[in-house]
Amino acid sequence: MPEAVTVITGAGIASGRFMFLQKSVEFTRPKTNILIDCELAADPGISMKYTGSNLSTILAGNFVNRFSLEGRSYKVIPQVARDHAAARKNAEAPSETAHDTNAG
Prior knowledge:
This protein is α+β, with helices and mostly antiparallel strands. It has a domain at 31-85. It has 4 helices and 2 strands, in the order H-H-H-E-E-H.
C-alpha cells in the first residue's frame, strides 16, 4: 500500500496540477464545550439527569424512532435548530426553548 501511495503522489507532483500533496489524511471533528450552571438549572427544577439525557439525545445524531409514510420507512433523527445550536453572545438572555421540569 505505501508503494501505491508513493506512485500516486509522484504522478500528481509530476503533472504540475497540484501545489502540494500529502500522504497522510487526518480528520478533525469540531468540539464543543458545554458549561451548565447546576444551581441555576436546579432553580426551575431541571435535574442534571434530565439535562444529560436531553443533550445526549439531541447531540448524538442517532435515530430515535422510525415512522412510515406512504409505504416508505423513515428514521427520526433529532436535531437542534440553528439558532439554538450556535453559541449565544449574551448568556443571560432567556432561552425560547421549552423545558420540562420535575414538577411537570
